[in-house]
Structures are given as C-alpha cells and as structure tokens.
C-alpha cells in the first residue's frame, strides 16, 4: 500500500509541476518578458528564448505531463488491482481522479497564473534544458502538428490595446492623468493631416517679395508672426519665407531699399494629405518651423507650423501675441459669406 501512495504522490507532483509550468510560461505577457530580458539574467534570457519559440517548450511539457498521467495511472492501476478488491478499486479510482483534477490541474494552474512571473523564471531554465533533451520526440511531434499550427504570427500588441492599457493604467494609478492623455494624443498624429492643422490660405498673412522694406515697413511691424511668407505675383507663387527679426534689423540699420525677396530663405512645401507624424519628422530633419501646404493641383492651400503639430500632443499653445480664435472656423465662415454673396451655398447649389 505504501508503494501505491508513493507513486500517487509522484504522479500528482509531476502533473502539478507540468501544469504550473505551462500556465506560468504562457501567462507572462510578451512585453513583460522583453522587459525582464533587459536585466540579462540567465532565467530571464531563457524565458525570452522559450517565448520566442513557444511551441517546442509547450510540447515538451505536454509530453512530460502525459507520461506522468498515463504511465503513472497504468502503474497505479496494476498495483491497486493486486492490493484491492473490485469494490475498493472503484472507490480508489474515483479518489485518484479527483486528486488529479484538483491537485494536478486546477490548483497548480491557478497558482501558475497568479504567480506567473515568479514561477516562469523558476521553470525557464529547467524547461529549456528538458526541451533540448526531448528534441527528437518534440521534432517528431512538430512534423505531425505542423499542418495545423502553421499561420501568420500575430503582432505583440496594437494601437487599440496600447490606448486601453493607458486608460487602465490611469484608472489604477500606475500613470498620471497627463501621461495617459499624452499617450492618447500621440496616436492622433497618425490620424490628422496637414489640411486638418493648417492655417487656410484665405486668412494667411504674406507680403509681395518685390516690395522694399520701406514700403512694407508698417505691415512688417504689425505682423504677429515671426515668419512672413513672400510671394511673387499671386499667393500660389510663394518664393520663400522671411524672418521678421531680420527684416526689422535691416530696417533699423537703414537698408530700407532692399526688397523682401532678397531677404527670404527657402520654404518647405508639403501636400495636404501628409500625416502629422510625417510632418513632424520633416520639421525635425529640415530644422524649419513652417511649411506651405499644397493642394492636389499644386496651388497653395495654407500654411502649417511646427507649433500646429506640437499642439496635437500638448493641447493649444497660446503666447502673448495669440488671439483666442479658431482660424479654421474663421476661414469656413469667410468662405461661406463669399459664396452666399455670390449666390451659392456651401455645397455649390445656386441660391434663389
């Protein structure tokens, strides 16, 4: 009878270890595994290697688990048949099944999920070693199961999941509200285009490049912008951008006869459909703070600045020269008034 109890204990222990190992290794998120691997500890690196190709370690654990359950049950059944009569053999089988379900599956898997990180690090190196030992058997199992397991590998995470994690992190107090808001705003960069952020051409400020500084002096001084567009014959012919402080410096130094065109620097042109994240990269690479937005026909739609893009991340940035107005709304209202004065609605339908 002692032999039966000992073998039952071994079977329960082996089944429990396999169940806990499988659950813990699968319960640690991929992001957490990569974070642990940055410590360069052997157990963490082993865990990362296991998760990188999880099918072999899991196959090893399943094989071991079935060895304990099947072989153990056969051995126990043989010993029990010799020691017990038919009535007690049925009772013994029911008790053994109950013990395996509770202590060989439910309890260890629950603990494996609850203490996933700790147990995964404990089991990582042993599982990695056993996977190497069982390589021939695992390889055979892989060949048999490969038609059913082939498929595209799913990404570790996605935008919706990151947004949700940020929201949960804020609710649980892991991150601050401003941090959560910033994370949410970052994803808006990929959703907005230059046409969403620009100052429309209808309310752009610019100066003819042919004007001399003396002729444009009042307009330069009155301008609220540090960068002023210079045009040729029309607004669709932008020749560059002039820095207001340079224009004022030349005026102060008595060089008022110089034309604005001679004091401009090249300007960046971007299409209406360019996304805000790409636009931000352009500003960084060119070290410019302003770009002219072109429509599909090459005409000027408006102007967009680095500040416009940064406001997507930070919210509205207002300095001492800004007016509390929505330029997009101003443009829409002005366009509406112009259309109505011409006898048309915004949709292009002629008004009676």
Beta fraction of the residues? 5-15%
Q: What oligomeric state is this? A: single chain
Strand order of the largest sheet: 1-7-6-5
Indicate the overall shape.
rod-shaped
Q: What's the topology here?
A:
Elements: H1 2-27, H2 30-37, H3 42-52, H4 55-83, H5 86-114, H6 116-133, H7 135-149, H8 159-171, H9 177-186, H10 194-197, E1 199-200, E2 206-208, H11 213-222, E3 227-231, E4 238-243, H12 244-252, E5 268-271, H13 276-286, E6 290-294, E7 300-305, H14 306-314, H15 327-341
Parallel strand pairs: 2-3, 5-6
Antiparallel strand pairs: 1-7, 3-4, 6-7
Helix pairs in contact: 1-4, 1-5, 1-6, 2-3, 3-6, 4-6, 4-7, 8-9, 11-12
Account of the protein in words:
- The protein has 352 residues and is α/β, with parallel strands linked by helices.
- It folds into 3 domains: 2-148, no CATH class; 162-190, no CATH class; 194-321, Roll (CBS-domain), CATH 3.10.580.
- The protein is built from 15 helices and 7 strands.
- It has a 4-stranded mixed sheet with strand order 1-7-6-5. A 3-stranded mixed sheet has the order 2-3-4.
- Helix 1 (2-27) crosses helix 6 (116-133), helix 2 (30-37) packs antiparallel against helix 3 (42-52) and helix 4 packs across helix 7 (135-149).
- It is rod-shaped.
- The termini are far apart.
- The relative contact order is 0.08.
